[in-house]
Amino acid sequence: MFIAPWLIGFLLLTLWPIGQSFYLSFTDYSLLSEPVWTGGANYAKIFGGDPTFLQSLRVTSTFVLYSVPLKLLFSLLVAMLLNRSLRGMNLYRTAIYFPSLIGGSVAVAALWRNMFGKEGYINQVLAWFGVEGTGWISNPDTALGTLILLNTWQFGSTMVIFLAGLKQIPQDLYESAAVDGAGPIRKFFRITLPMLSPVLFFNLVLGIIGSFQMFTASFVITPRGGPMLSTYVYAVYLYETAFKHYQMGYASALAWILLVIVAVLTALNFLASRYWVYYETEGGRAK
Fold first, then answer.
1. What is the pLDDT of residues 233-269, one digit of tens each?
2. 27 domain residue, yes or no
């Protein structure tokens, strides 16, 4: 009885739409007429040479490849800087984390578009030093880079998780290493990284999943996929297929392909984790 509200919500708002999406992926459905069963026609069309599918997948893969490592590296760096016993440190942590509360909003995306526009704030600052800036979001060579930079800037949640992991590392390990003459770099690679590897693995998996679902920044900052489809990520292609062209069956097939891609990458990460993730309770690496 107590779990009934959640269970009903899960069945009606999660499980049922998932099942409907799977069924629609095998149909020709436009929202304006009844679904017509077509079997694997949608998947055959996608893998048979849909150029937009390949382009969006390439752009998304590039985005994930660069944004995830940069975000992890920057988050870990900031977490280590905040993992100190200094006066007012709680205030610093709050101030640094606060932008993440609105980091994925449309307002921030619009602000980012103004910052990197031809007459934006970035070019105004560069002009002070005699440097003529470019239209960062209108240039196909730099448009995707602005989205990667925005994703890296939205590091607050990842940083907090890293910070929590750093506080769980026993300080006596660092003290023993200092007695043996280990310097900061050796401590980082021999103590911090191994002890933090479960947290790093967790953030890595979430980062990959979240990056493949990136939508708002591309849709707002670089409408219509940006210059020469250089920022036309997978989620935008899926959205436009469904709600602009009303090809709901085809969009459902795209959604399930994305699910399979993310699931495979997640499974590969779990398989690889046994070789580099260290769990202290097991006395060794992940099992």
1. 999 999 999 999 999 999 999 999 999 999 999 999 9
2. no
Concatenate the DSSP letters of all residues of 106-172 into one string. Answer: HHHHHHHHHHTSTTSHHHHHHHHTT-----TTT-TTTHHHHHHHHHHH--HHHHHHHHHHHHTS-HH
* Residue 224: DSSP 8-state: G
Residue type, 90: N
Question: For residue 21, which of 212, 262, 242 has the smallest C-alpha distance?
Answer: 242
Task: List pLDDT tens digits, range 177-236.
Answer: 999 888 889 999 999 999 999 999 999 999 999 999 999 889 988 887 888 889 999 999
Number of domains into which the chain is organized: 1
Which residue range(s) make up the domain with 268?
Answer: 47-285
> How far is residue 94 from each of residues 101, 153, 159, 192, 265, measured CA to CA in Å?
11, 15, 12, 24, 33
